[in-house]
Amino acid sequence: MNLKINPTSSIPLIQQVETLLRDLIVVKEYQNGKLLPNELELAKVMGVSRTTLRQAINKLVFEELLIRKKGRGTWVNQQCHISSKSKNWMSFTQEMAAREIPIKNFELHISWVNPTKKTATFFDIKMDSKILRLARLRGTPDGPFVYFESFFDPKIGMTGDENFKLPLYEMLKQSFNVIAYKSQEEISAMAADDHIAEKLDIGIGSPILFRRRYVVDKQGKPIEYNKGYYRSDRFIYAIESEQGP
DSSP assignment, residue 73? Predict the structure, then answer.
């Protein structure tokens, strides 16, 4: 893994170091409890000062992604192994693969359903239309941590026989020349009802992270409406923002 910062980049050093750390801590050996390299060694590898590195580590400790104990070192918080970043988003499969996190599909169901009012408005279709619903329970080999429900614009022409084992947006591009360009997301906290609690193997009323995602192409045409229900003890959703000029 390349842990070198780019000294000619316009991105501030602290942000580059933070990004490198986020990539490092999802490597399997660190997920399994191996201590991170000590600060002197890691700062030398990255090509930054120890102070800059410590500032980045402090941020990840604050986010509860890392645990640091004097005299012992720094390691990944095992209670928060999975994270997602909103910047440069991609399909769930692609993102987890990029982070070297093994993903297992526990359930995959396809059905044709009538849209809700919200979904019909997004796709600009009638309420008595039929749309494709893809439901997937996903996680690591240790167990599921997210339940997805995706609904697709019927104008795409999907039949339900598509290969949903491929990364979703890759499949849409290959099969229909539909290219996902922009995602608008709404994130909130909620309590798990009996259906979601059973899927995620948690107690009814347990806190979960709920995310709505509206995906469109470059012309603004709708592609997918997605609902994701995440176990809050297994997942962190990180948002990276930059202040404008």
Answer: E
Give the model confidence (pLDDT) of 11-68 as tens digits: 888 888 988 998 888 888 888 889 999 999 999 999 999 999 998 898 888 777 889 8
Nearest to 20 by CA among 44, 40, 2: 2
Helix, strand, coil share of the chain (percent; to 5): 30, 30, 40
Task: Give the chain's mean pLDDT.
Answer: 87
Q: Which residues contact 36 (CB under 8 A, 6 or more apart)?
A: 24, 25, 30, 42, 66, 73, 74, 75, 76
* CB distance 148 to 227 below 8 Å: yes
Structure token pair of residue 191: 């309590």
Measure the CA angle with vertex 40, ends 38 and 44; round to 5°: 115
pLDDT above 70: residue 83? no
Query: Do 28 and 96 meet the contact criterion of CB atoms below 8 Å apart?
Result: no
| DSSP state, residue 67 | E
- Position 132 scores a pLDDT of 98
pLDDT exceeds cutoff 70 at 80? no
pTM (2 decimals)?
Answer: 0.65
Beta partners for residue 227, in sequence order:
149, 212
Distance CA 74, CA 115 (A): 48
CB 237 within 8 Å of CB 86: yes
What's the sign of the alpha-carbon dihedral 34, 40, 44, 47? positive
Question: What span, in angstroms and rounded, lies between the C-alpha atoms of 140 and 96?
Answer: 10
